[in-house]
Amino acid sequence: MNKLAIASAVAVALSSIAAAPAVAQDTVAVPYGDLDLTTTAGAQALGERLEAGVKAVCDRPDIRDLKSMAAWEQCKDTAMTAANEQLARQGARIAAN
Question: pTM of this prediction?
């Protein structure tokens, strides 16, 4: 079964911010072996799973805490980039939308 591990690699970004971290946990597995990524429906389902994985890894802070909100955005971007890099390394062929 194919899985991705979405990792939150924002420790460096958060180290300079005194606000509470925007990280819930380090990694979450996102299975995709049951999807046909060459179809639009499969690619869309993977995208939804990745978004859910990112939400599980990166906790959304209070919107009034601007520094934590910036760290949260960084967390989401980093996690999604890491997931896409893992897909590329595994040679996944994904349909263009």
Answer: 0.71
Cβ count within 10 A of residue 25? 12
For residue 35, is it within any domain? yes
Degrees to nearest 5, angle at CA 10 with 22 and 14: 65
Q: How far apart are CA 89 and CA 97, in angstroms?
A: 21
CA distance readout (Å), 43 to 17, 47, 84, 92: 35, 6, 12, 10
Q: How many domains does the chain have?
A: 1
Q: How far apart are CA 73 and CA 60, in angstroms?
A: 9
How much is the pLDDT for 27? 84
Residue 6: closest CA among 89, 94, 75:
75
Alpha-helical regions (H) of 9-59: 11-15, 40-57
- What is the extent of the structural domain holding 54? 3-89
